[in-house]
Amino acid sequence: MQIETTVLVCPRNDEEALMILKLAEKLQLAVVVSDQPHGAKLDREKDLLARIREASSSATRVVIVEIPGPEVEDDLRANGLTVEIIDHHRYDGIDRMQKESSLEQFIEMFAVTDDQLTEWGFSPVMVHSVGVIDRGFVWALKDAGYVGEGRKEALAFYRTLTEELGVERRDKEEAAARAAWEKREERDGFLIVRGEEDRISIRDALSFIIASEFDEPQPVMIIQGERRMYVQDTEKAKVLYDTFGGFTFGQDRCWGILKEEGALPTVDEVLQVVVS
């Protein structure tokens, strides 16, 4: 891929995205950084075409990371740009599920080698671990060969990225996650965790709490206020998606929904799907 004529459109809303942006900088790739949080949509990006042209006046190709928007993508194509998608999620009406994480796809697309990573000052093993965690969370590290000290190092490196995204924000997420975790209940083999705060997501912080207390994945339902709901580590994630909409992630073993309006599914409705 020609770096000189390519623009990357990428959010800076989690550890994997941050790692992609770090590699893009080393590649001297022109970038449009989205300030949208998780749940980003391309039609919410203001003046996107102008920002792409500003990033590179010679751009002929746009690579978009985890910001779905088929209509906007078609508009970009109509303006003479080739559009490439990096994603591994399933959204309402848009199936972009892939086996590889977005970081792994980025590394492959731009042919980034371990020698380059080393030259740029990164540990290749640690960079790849970020993709592993995003693809299958902490549980995937073992299958990828990260055990013992290797697992600890991978989690420590991931933590440095978390802190770079904003210590104050993360502290708030972790405090809310811990408070919700202390009030957890269990029904039908699922841990059910409720939080009142729905302006932030506690899912990631809560997942690390669960990983610190269990050696194996635990089915968990997370309800945050009236807007957010997630179900993690279930074989019924795709069925939940087909039933309630939302999105899937984690290799189709996790489901989530963010409601802009209307009511979330009830716990009973979700349990009826996942335990049937």
Topology:
Blueprint: E1 6-11, H1 15-26, E2 30-34, H2 48-55, E3 61-65, H3 70-78, E4 82-86, E5 90-91, E6 94-95, H4 102-109, H5 114-119, H6 124-136, H7 139-143, H8 149-165, H9 167-182, E7 185-187, E8 190-195, H10 203-213, E9 220-224, E10 228-232, H11 237-244, E11 247-249, E12 254-258, H12 267-274
Parallel strand pairs: 1-2, 1-3, 3-4, 8-9
Antiparallel strand pairs: 5-6, 7-8, 9-10, 10-12, 11-12
Helix pairs in contact: 1-4, 6-8, 9-10
Give a verbal description of the structure.
44% of the residues lie in helices and 19% in strands. The chain has twelve helices and twelve strands. The protein has helices at residues 15-26, 48-55, 70-78, 102-109, 114-119, 124-136, 139-143, 149-165, 167-182, 203-213, 237-244, 267-274, and strands at residues 6-11, 30-34, 61-65, 82-86, 90-91, 94-95, 185-187, 190-195, 220-224, 228-232, 247-249, 254-258. Helix 6 (124-136) packs across helix 8 and helix 9 packs across helix 10 (203-213). The protein starts with 5 loop residues before the first strand and ends with a helix. The model has no long low-confidence stretch (mean pLDDT 95).
Distance between the termini: 47 Å
CATH topology of the largest domain: Rossmann fold
Strand content: 15-25%
Share in helix: 40-55%
CA radius of gyration is 19 Å
Approximate shape? globular
Instruction: Report low-confidence residues grouped into runs of 5 or more.
Output: none
Average pLDDT taken over every residue: 95
Tell me the major beta sheet: 6 strands, mixed
Q: Number of helical runs?
A: 12
Oligomeric state of the chains in view = single chain
- What count of structural domains? 2
Structural class: alpha/beta
Query: What is the CATH architecture term of the largest domain?
Result: 3-Layer(aba) Sandwich
For the record, the CATH class of the largest domain is Alpha Beta
